[in-house]
Design brief:
Helices cover about 45% and strands about 15% of the residues. By secondary structure, the protein is α/β, with parallel strands linked by helices.
Length: about 325
């Protein structure tokens, strides 16, 4: 799969843009485990043009994480164009437009998935941004606003005509938020459309190597994006890549090995930020790790993890888990 001259190889697996998750440390970790491309946290166009320090920091990328996409969101043409030019100066490989974020503070103000209620403006923004920058522009969006307005098949053509060079589709409507099951049927219909020539990346509920292969085989997508399934499990990229390449599951990764990865994730987060902010950032990812599912009476331990504020306390809990539940 190619996005202009960026070759991501056959059946690429990419890390989704996620607020408070895909910082440089986590992106690099997923990259080491096999992610073919990574995305930054989404970036507010309005905050960018006001040079808000916290937002500007999201543009920091490391050469080791390439290819990397910076994703922006906004609700008007001039702001998005100006923000796109600022992003281009940060030299990402790709600029992605977020027309899919469903949260109220974004979509409720007309940005993100809110754009699905104003397609003419979405297309105007897309065309203007494509014309404003020299790097490839891509889009991430959803099936539509709600079940009765699943417009993605026609919208894909319209976005392609604006000049985007790849499209990622999350298999839910905005109304669904993150509930229910992702429906990949319409994503497959986009791929069946003979007018579509840009790469189509599918997103939503890919939580296992088997499901990733099924999505490639059944829906014909060019790439797959993994988001929430990477929480506390950055090695999912390693598992998926192995399965796609060899047709069999990766030999089981040991509990101890996974625990060391989680420890490294803590260290990387603290080194990137500082102890307090690093722990606040990473603790909920660890608490939600699927490797702890099935452990009896784990609720109190999870709550303790979510309350930690120091590396020492968090590592003490990981030591307790390792000593009592390692398999």
């Amino acid at each position: 799969m190619k996005i202009r001259n960026i070759d991501l190889g056959e059946q690429p697996i990419v890390l989704a843009p996620m607020e408070d998750v895909t910082d440089p440390a986590f992106r690099l970790m997923c990259k080491r485990f096999g992610a073919d491309m990574v995305y930054t946290e989404f970036v507010s166009a309005d905050a960018l043009i006001r040079s808000v320090n916290k937002t500007m920091a999201k543009l920091n990328i490391d050469e080791q994480e390439r290819p990397v996409a910076i994703q922006i969101y906004g609700k008007d043409v001039p702001t998005m164009v100006e923000a796109a030019k600022i992003v281009e100066e940060a030299k990402p490989d790709i600029l992605d437009l977020n027309f899919g974020c469903p949260v109220k503070r974004v979509a409720g103000k007309g940005a993100g998935a809110g754009m699905l209620q104003n397609i003419p403006l979405m297309l105007e923004i897309t065309k203007a941004v494509v014309n404003a920058v020299k790097i490839p522009v891509t889009v991430k969006t959803r099936l539509g606003w709600d079940h009765d307005h699943r417009i993605i098949v026609d919208l894909a053509e319209q976005l392609q005509d604006c000049g985007i060079e790849a499209l990622t589709v999350h298999g839910r409507t905005r109304a669904q938020m993150y509930t229910g099951e992702a429906d990949w049927t319409l994503i497959g219909d986009i791929k069946k459309n003979p007018r579509i020539h840009i790469p189509i990346i599918g997103n939503g509920d890919v939580t296992s190597p088997q499901r990733a292969k099924e999505c490639f085989d059944k829906y014909g997508v060019d790439g797959i994006m993994i988001g929430r399934a990477s929480f506390g499990r950055p090695w999912i990229f390693k598992e998926v890549k192995h399965y796609l390449q060899h047709g069999e599951e990766l030999p089981p990764l040991s509990f101890d090995w996974k625990m060391e990865v989680l420890r490294q994730q803590v260290i990387d987060s603290v080194n990137l930020l500082d102890e307090r902010r690093g722990i606040l950032h990473v603790r909920r990812h660890l608490a939600n790790s699927p490797m702890f599912k099935g452990i009896p009476n784990f609720k109190e331990t999870r709550i303790a993890m979510l309350r930690t504020e120091t590396v020492k306390d968090l590592f003490s809990i990981l030591d307790y888990i390792k000593g009592n539940y390692a398999i």
